Amino acid sequence: MATTSQQDTHNTVKDLTGQAKAAIDSTADTVHDAAREARRHVGAVGGNFNTALDKSLKNQPYTTLVMAGLVGLVVGALWKS
Fold first, then answer.
1. How far is the C-alpha of 64 from the C-alpha of 56, rounded, in Å?
2. pTM of the model
3. CA proximity to 25, closest of 17, 13, 36, 15
4. Would you call 56 exposed, middle or buried from its count of C-beta atoms within 10 A (0-12, 13-18, 19+)?
5. Staple 2 to which of 6, 30, 37, 56, CB 3.0 to 4.6 Å?
6. What are phi and psi of 60, to 5 degrees?
7. Chunked mean pLDDT (size 10), the chain, 81 residues
């Protein structure tokens, strides 16, 4: 037979467990929504970058080639170090 104190402790633990589960579920939903929003923004930036690169290749092909070479040089230097 459980005493009143044990029953109270059991109920308190049960309530706290429910609250923790609710907090975890809420946090998971928030993280999921933030990830969806970030993915949408990355897609938009990728589209803008493609458009800018295509325009640059058509209007200034040599400048674009030099910029690509410089980016490669920087990435190579960072990779080596």
1. 6
2. 0.49
3. 17
4. middle
5. 6
6. -140, 75
7. 80 91 92 90 85 88 90 92 77
